[in-house]
Amino acid sequence: MSYLNMQDEKLLPVVVELNKLLANYHIYYQKLRNFHWNILGENFFDLHIKFEELYTDARTKIDEIAERILTLRYHPMSNLSDYLKISSINEVSPLQSDKEMVNEIINDHKLLLEQMKLVIDKSEPASDEGTMDLIGAYIRELEKASWMLNAWTKDSKDKLKSSVM
Ligand SMILES: [Fe+2]
Questions:
Q1: Which of 30, 53, 114, 129 is the most buried (most CB within 10 A)?
Q2: Rounded mean pLDDT for each run of 10 residues along the chain, 165 residues in total
């Protein structure tokens, strides 16, 4: 008997989307290590540290996503070859400028956020509040990280939208 107060048949679509998120996170994680190693130029020290901070956070989330799938009583996908097949995030060359690397990561965040919204969409009909809580927090954190990376790409004279009418 299940220890969860949820209907098993409604959880499978949640697990399918969580596995895709897990795959995306693995490719994103390895891309960050790639950029951490290969960054060159005057922003080396800032970005070498920033990419490490991001991949350390990704490593924690990879484990939490896999363990959420196990909590829902399924095996998480675990082969790199399978991750590459279903990930919407692609591998890239390390031969990029610092700005190209940051823009690449911002774009990966968009893809991760899209996948997180699909997880939430499937969690609602399953009444899977544990998954919604976990992934909802990820969305907030990733949006904040994206704001900071986007700010880094701007000129100090650039302006954001005004909220004053
Ligand atoms: Fe390192």
A1: 30
A2: 80 97 98 98 98 98 98 97 97 95 98 98 96 98 98 93 88
Å from CA of 118 to ligand 1 middle:
33
Q: How far apart are CA 56 and CA 162, in angstroms?
A: 34
Three-state SS for 96? coil
Task: Compute the distance from residue 137 Cα to the ligand 1 centre, in Å.
Answer: 27
| Residues whose CB falls within 8 Å of the CB of residue 82, separated by 6 or more in sequence, listed in order | 23
pTM (whole model) above 0.90: yes
Q: How far is the CA of 138 from the centre of ligand 1 (A)?
A: 24
Domain that holds residue 105: 8-150
CATH of the domain at 108: 1.20.1260.10
